[in-house]
Amino acid sequence: MNEIYISTDVETDGPIPGPHSMLSLGSAAYTADKQLVATFSANLETLPGAEPHPKTAEWWATQPEAWAACRKNLEAPDAAMTRYASWVRSLGGKPVFVAYPAGFDFLFVYWYLIRFTGDSPFSHSALDMKTFAMALLKTDYRESTKRNMPKRWFDKFPHTHVALDDAIEQGALFCNMLKESRG
Protein backbone atom coordinates (compact mmCIF):
# COMPACT_ATOMS: atom_id res chain seq x y z
CA MET A 1 0.00 0.00 0.00
CA ASN A 2 1.33 3.38 -0.99
CA GLU A 3 1.13 6.45 1.18
CA ILE A 4 -1.50 9.01 0.28
CA TYR A 5 -0.65 12.56 1.34
CA ILE A 6 -3.66 14.41 2.68
CA SER A 7 -2.86 18.09 2.61
CA THR A 8 -5.12 19.72 5.15
CA ASP A 9 -5.96 23.25 6.18
CA VAL A 10 -8.32 24.39 8.91
CA GLU A 11 -9.84 27.73 9.71
CA THR A 12 -10.61 28.37 13.37
CA ASP A 13 -11.85 31.07 15.70
CA GLY A 14 -9.01 30.67 18.19
CA PRO A 15 -5.67 29.02 18.94
CA ILE A 16 -6.80 25.73 20.52
CA PRO A 17 -9.76 23.35 20.18
CA GLY A 18 -12.31 23.14 22.96
CA PRO A 19 -12.41 26.72 24.16
CA HIS A 20 -12.44 27.66 20.46
CA SER A 21 -13.94 26.05 17.37
CA MET A 22 -12.75 24.70 14.05
CA LEU A 23 -14.84 26.63 11.54
CA SER A 24 -13.76 24.94 8.33
CA LEU A 25 -11.80 21.86 7.25
CA GLY A 26 -10.37 21.28 3.79
CA SER A 27 -8.26 18.38 2.59
CA ALA A 28 -6.72 17.47 -0.76
CA ALA A 29 -5.45 13.91 -1.21
CA TYR A 30 -2.33 13.60 -3.38
CA THR A 31 -0.19 10.71 -4.52
CA ALA A 32 3.59 11.11 -4.34
CA ASP A 33 3.63 11.91 -8.08
CA LYS A 34 1.35 14.92 -7.50
CA GLN A 35 -1.91 13.40 -8.67
CA LEU A 36 -4.84 15.07 -6.92
CA VAL A 37 -7.00 12.06 -6.06
CA ALA A 38 -9.89 13.63 -4.15
CA THR A 39 -10.90 16.60 -2.03
CA PHE A 40 -12.99 17.11 1.09
CA SER A 41 -14.43 20.22 2.67
CA ALA A 42 -16.80 21.01 5.49
CA ASN A 43 -17.88 24.10 7.37
CA LEU A 44 -18.64 23.30 10.99
CA GLU A 45 -21.02 24.71 13.53
CA THR A 46 -19.20 26.15 16.52
CA LEU A 47 -18.79 24.08 19.66
CA PRO A 48 -21.34 24.61 22.44
CA GLY A 49 -19.87 27.01 25.00
CA ALA A 50 -16.85 27.89 22.85
CA GLU A 51 -16.04 31.53 22.18
CA PRO A 52 -13.93 33.23 19.51
CA HIS A 53 -10.53 34.41 20.71
CA PRO A 54 -10.37 38.25 20.53
CA LYS A 55 -7.19 38.33 18.41
CA THR A 56 -8.58 35.74 15.99
CA ALA A 57 -11.88 37.62 15.74
CA GLU A 58 -9.94 40.78 14.98
CA TRP A 59 -8.07 38.98 12.17
CA TRP A 60 -11.29 37.54 10.74
CA ALA A 61 -12.68 41.08 10.51
CA THR A 62 -9.99 41.75 7.87
CA GLN A 63 -11.03 38.67 5.83
CA PRO A 64 -14.73 39.16 4.97
CA GLU A 65 -14.76 36.87 1.89
CA ALA A 66 -13.03 33.99 3.66
CA TRP A 67 -15.29 34.49 6.69
CA ALA A 68 -18.41 34.34 4.52
CA ALA A 69 -17.10 31.20 2.80
CA CYS A 70 -16.51 29.33 6.08
CA ARG A 71 -19.94 30.20 7.49
CA LYS A 72 -22.00 28.71 4.61
CA ASN A 73 -23.68 25.28 4.69
CA LEU A 74 -22.75 24.52 8.30
CA GLU A 75 -22.65 20.94 9.58
CA ALA A 76 -22.70 19.62 13.12
CA PRO A 77 -19.13 18.66 14.12
CA ASP A 78 -20.04 15.01 14.74
CA ALA A 79 -21.58 14.65 11.26
CA ALA A 80 -18.70 16.46 9.54
CA MET A 81 -15.99 14.48 11.32
CA THR A 82 -17.72 11.15 10.73
CA ARG A 83 -17.98 12.03 7.06
CA TYR A 84 -14.31 13.10 7.05
CA ALA A 85 -13.04 9.91 8.71
CA SER A 86 -15.00 7.83 6.20
CA TRP A 87 -13.59 9.90 3.33
CA VAL A 88 -9.99 9.40 4.53
CA ARG A 89 -10.53 5.64 4.89
CA SER A 90 -12.14 5.43 1.43
CA LEU A 91 -8.98 6.72 -0.25
CA GLY A 92 -7.06 3.49 0.27
CA GLY A 93 -3.35 3.54 0.88
CA LYS A 94 -1.69 4.69 4.07
CA PRO A 95 -2.97 8.18 4.94
CA VAL A 96 -0.41 10.78 5.98
CA PHE A 97 -1.69 14.11 7.27
CA VAL A 98 0.29 16.99 5.69
CA ALA A 99 0.02 20.62 6.77
CA TYR A 100 1.78 23.95 7.07
CA PRO A 101 2.14 24.01 10.04
CA ALA A 102 1.07 20.54 11.14
CA GLY A 103 1.34 21.55 14.79
CA PHE A 104 -1.73 23.77 14.41
CA ASP A 105 -3.89 21.99 11.84
CA PHE A 106 -3.29 18.47 13.18
CA LEU A 107 -4.07 19.64 16.72
CA PHE A 108 -7.58 20.67 15.65
CA VAL A 109 -8.29 17.77 13.30
CA TYR A 110 -7.03 15.11 15.72
CA TRP A 111 -8.93 16.64 18.65
CA TYR A 112 -12.14 16.81 16.63
CA LEU A 113 -11.70 13.25 15.29
CA ILE A 114 -11.15 11.81 18.76
CA ARG A 115 -13.91 13.90 20.32
CA PHE A 116 -16.55 13.19 17.67
CA THR A 117 -15.60 9.79 16.19
CA GLY A 118 -13.43 8.23 18.88
CA ASP A 119 -10.63 7.42 16.42
CA SER A 120 -8.22 8.93 13.90
CA PRO A 121 -7.58 7.30 10.51
CA PHE A 122 -4.17 9.01 10.58
CA SER A 123 -3.09 7.51 13.90
CA HIS A 124 -0.25 9.96 14.66
CA SER A 125 1.03 10.29 11.07
CA ALA A 126 1.37 14.04 10.63
CA LEU A 127 4.02 15.59 8.41
CA ASP A 128 4.96 19.22 8.97
CA MET A 129 5.90 20.98 5.73
CA LYS A 130 7.91 23.64 7.51
CA THR A 131 10.13 20.98 9.12
CA PHE A 132 10.47 19.26 5.74
CA ALA A 133 11.52 22.60 4.20
CA MET A 134 14.07 23.09 6.99
CA ALA A 135 15.68 19.75 6.06
CA LEU A 136 15.64 20.44 2.32
CA LEU A 137 16.96 23.99 2.66
CA LYS A 138 19.49 23.02 5.34
CA THR A 139 18.50 26.05 7.36
CA ASP A 140 17.06 26.92 10.75
CA TYR A 141 13.41 26.14 11.42
CA ARG A 142 12.37 29.77 11.83
CA GLU A 143 14.03 30.58 8.51
CA SER A 144 11.97 27.89 6.75
CA THR A 145 9.10 30.17 5.84
CA LYS A 146 7.29 30.32 2.53
CA ARG A 147 8.96 33.62 1.65
CA ASN A 148 12.36 31.90 1.96
CA MET A 149 11.40 28.85 -0.10
CA PRO A 150 12.49 28.60 -3.74
CA LYS A 151 9.92 29.88 -6.24
CA ARG A 152 10.19 26.58 -8.17
CA TRP A 153 8.34 24.83 -5.32
CA PHE A 154 5.19 26.93 -5.84
CA ASP A 155 2.45 26.39 -8.36
CA LYS A 156 0.19 29.30 -9.25
CA PHE A 157 -2.54 28.78 -6.66
CA PRO A 158 -3.95 31.62 -4.59
CA HIS A 159 -3.83 31.55 -0.80
CA THR A 160 -7.41 32.57 0.02
CA HIS A 161 -7.87 31.44 3.64
CA VAL A 162 -10.64 29.19 2.34
CA ALA A 163 -9.64 25.81 3.78
CA LEU A 164 -9.99 23.70 0.62
CA ASP A 165 -8.23 26.27 -1.59
CA ASP A 166 -5.31 26.43 0.81
CA ALA A 167 -5.16 22.63 1.19
CA ILE A 168 -4.87 22.24 -2.60
CA GLU A 169 -2.22 24.96 -2.80
CA GLN A 170 -0.16 23.50 0.04
CA GLY A 171 -0.55 19.95 -1.29
CA ALA A 172 0.98 20.95 -4.62
CA LEU A 173 3.79 22.71 -2.74
CA PHE A 174 4.42 19.56 -0.68
CA CYS A 175 4.51 17.35 -3.79
CA ASN A 176 7.04 19.69 -5.42
CA MET A 177 9.19 19.53 -2.30
CA LEU A 178 8.87 15.74 -2.20
CA LYS A 179 9.89 15.39 -5.85
CA GLU A 180 12.96 17.54 -5.29
CA SER A 181 13.93 15.60 -2.16
CA ARG A 182 13.82 12.35 -4.11
CA GLY A 183 15.29 13.78 -7.32
From TrEMBL:
InterPro entries: RNaseH-like_sf (IPR012337), RNaseH_sf (IPR036397). It comes from the Bacteria. GO terms for molecular function: exonuclease activity; nucleic acid binding. Signal peptide: none annotated. Keywords: Exonuclease, Hydrolase, Nuclease. The keyword Ribosomal protein does not apply. This is Exonuclease. It comes from Chitinimonas arctica.
